[in-house]
Amino acid sequence: MYALVDCNNFFASCERVFNPALRDQPIVVLSNNDGCVIARSNEAKRLGLKMGEPFFKVKDIIEKNGIHVFSSNYSLYGDMSNRVMKILSGFVKDVEIYSIDESFLDFTGYEEHYNLTQYGKQIVHTVSRNTGIPVSMGIAPTKTLAKVASKFAKKYKRYGGVCVIDSEEKREKALRLFDIADVWGVGRQYFKVLNYHGVKTAYDFTLKPESFVRKHMKVFGVRTWKELRGIPCYDLEQPQDKKSICTSRSFGENVTDYPTLSEAVSNFAAACARKLREQNSCAGMVTVFILTNRFRTDQPQDFECRTISLPVATNASGELIAAALTVLKSSYKKGFAYKKAGCIVSAIVPANEVQLNLFDETDRIRLQRLYNTVDRVNKKNGMNTLKIAAQGYSKKWKLKNEHISKRYTTNLADIITIHCR
Question: In this structure, are residues 215 and 235 in contact, taking their beta carbons and an 8 Å threshold?
Fold first, then answer.
């Protein structure tokens, strides 16, 4: 048996934890640069706000209904997610963190010692009590069915936060009520094909012969079909080191000058270096891309993407920044207003398997000690307490986040204040 734990309206719930006045109030959270709606509370959903709608198009609805608006606060959301996942890890041996607000739990063998419904409710209650984040849980023989069950647990309060599919009768009933478009793994293109062939519900899909599924959806579709029929095809996945790492941003305002653009790219390269050190890896290639706003047809357009190979794979911020700026100098053109830039590091290898260069004069052991110290200082005192001078202090390229909330759990300056009389 598998369980899927899903945090309810996660971003909105994070904002409510430290501001109780927001309970039962409509909330929306915006994407980078306050561009689109990416999260909504149930109250906001009932007012008709859709996922992905541009902020400027729904601004009148938001103001008319007194909807609370927040910019994405990933420092807060990431920390709250870590707290939820740590609690879940205390209840089961194996956990797969699927996304920032979802994780799979392996309940194999637990049914012999626990009532899974009661055990699930204990987990849901503990997470909500200890973090303030409401969660729902679906339990079923396969991961895909657990996803289905979690949707019912979230939608219907009578389940008490936990829906269990543990019999053929429950499986058929759930799939008859479940739209095929909402099935995990059925994308937009597959939905069109299935809809054309009369498949409206998940149950309709399971009635199709395997040959039909294999013809129209290949092997991946067959696995989904089997999982919906109660045949496990997916085990829990263990986290693996990334094969490439990308850090990119759309700018709050267009960037035309090289110094500002180089500062942005330097910060992106430094972020890639930090992520490499976190997984104890080094990168042998650096790619930098810059592009203008393709929606501004009244402005000249440019897109550049170039790569450089390093003589020795590294995770040192200074070396990756230097390589990124070398690429940027050959890519930048005057007269263009750049809207987005990014840095990608690839050819990643474990730090203890780096192929050295005969002509490399860098003291790599000393460099490693330096960045170990930098990381410890930044972890204790906040991101970029220590940084490379090339990262600068300009805010011209920063994200637009006019509605950002405080980083209550990761910044001492933003710690919650309680006034007592």
Answer: no
